[in-house]
Amino acid sequence: MVVVTSLGPPEEGIKAQQDATEVYIDNRSLGMGTLYISESRVSWVGIQQRGFSLEYPHIAVHAVSRDLTQFHQECLYLMIDVRLMDQEATPTSSSAGSDMEDNE
User: Fold this and answer.
1) CA–CA separation, 43 vs 8, rounded Å?
2) What is the model's pTM?
């Protein structure tokens, strides 16, 4: 289970950081934040310090999607093998899409 909750950025092993990243779960935006790619996980921390962290074994599929018929802009698509929960323990989805700006 992955919980969308109060979270700070990873403290070690950060390989890439992308600011101004918007995360969507089932077409519902969680808002803007920072995406972190570290040696052991992918983490997203929103502006209000609400976010999630996924260890790599829980990411079943990842891809860069450029198909604008499937999503309104290019994005990093993640399909995960765990259930996402919000901080009230309400189930949300089993996949998450991360909408990244083109300033890599």
Assistant:
1) 9
2) 0.75
* Terminal Cα-to-Cα distance of the chain (whole angstroms): 30
Strands 2-6 and 50-55: antiparallel
Sheet holding 75-80, edge to edge: 59-65, 75-80, 95-99, 14-25, 28-38, 41-46, 50-55, 2-6, 84-86
Per-residue model confidence as pLDDT tens digits over 13-34? 999 999 999 999 888 899 999 9
What's the one-letter identity of residue 57?
Answer: P
As a whole number of angstroms, the distance between CA 33 and CA 88 comes to 20
Identify the residue whose tokens are 């260890």: 55
48 and 17 Cβ atoms separated by less than 8 Å: no
